[in-house]
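Task card 7
Instruction: Convert sequence to structure tokens.
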Amino acid sequence: MIRIDILTVVPELLESPFAHSIIKRAKAKGLVELVVHNIRDYTTDKHHRVDDYAFSGDAGMVLMIEPVFRAIADLKSRHNYDEVIYTSPDGAQFNQKEANRLSTAGNLLILCGHYKGIDHRIREHLITKEISIGDYVLTGGELAAAVICDSVIRLLPGAMTDESSALSDSFQDNLLAPPVYTRPAEFNGWKVPDILLNGNAAVIDQWRFEQSMDRTQRLRPDLLE
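Output:
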């Protein structure tokens, strides 16, 4: 089982992503313990304020060091974490290889960035891994945290009905997945490739590999480098 703790200033944003589909089933099976914590619970400010102006005078508010430090310290006093992750647009680009690695962890702590970011001293002294899900900026790191959790949890043994399905996903072997089809074999004059209907598993596997190579070369040649 893996435990994932998430620190956020907007816990409500994570309610729906974690209440459905594979994540819901994985939680019900006891494969993952997913706990969302409100950083505001760790502030001493009577108005539950957790942000302040940047010393640099830059526009935008910054998550204050004290409540974030207290939150991380509290969780670390109760659990040993394999990684303390910060979601940030300038972190390392998240990919399937990293999802595979994190899926073998015991405990993960994810700190969601918000506002203009967090006091940099947290990043310097407490964060072990910074992750970005793309070269763009979101309102906060909650959606990024949900993406990371989804990609990791679906890889846990028993999370998917057909565990072999994850092995043929795009990026698992640095190739894009081949095209997939289902019934009917012909619709609106559009036909499923005949090779998929002949029942020859070896021939179909070869076709799938060739299709993966072709799609990767055309759409994501960088993966083959």
